[in-house]
Amino acid sequence: MEVANQSIVAEFVLLGLSDQPKLEKMFFVLILSRYLVILLGNGVLILVTILDSSLHTPMYFFLGNLSFLDICYTTSSVPLVLDGFLTPRKTISFSGCAVQMFLSFAMGATECVLLGMMAFDRYVAICNPLRYPVVMSKAAYVPMAASSWVAGGANSLVQISLAVQLPLCGDNVINHFICEILAVLKLACADISINVVSMGVANVIFLGVPVLFIFVSYIFILTSILRIPSPEGQRKAFSTCSAHLTEVVIFYGTILFMYGKPKSKDPLGADKQDVSDKLISLFYGVLTPMLNPIIYSLRNKDVKVAVKNLVAQKCSPNDSGRKQCILWFCAHRGSPRK
Question: What pTM was computed for the model?
Answer without folding.
Answer: 0.81
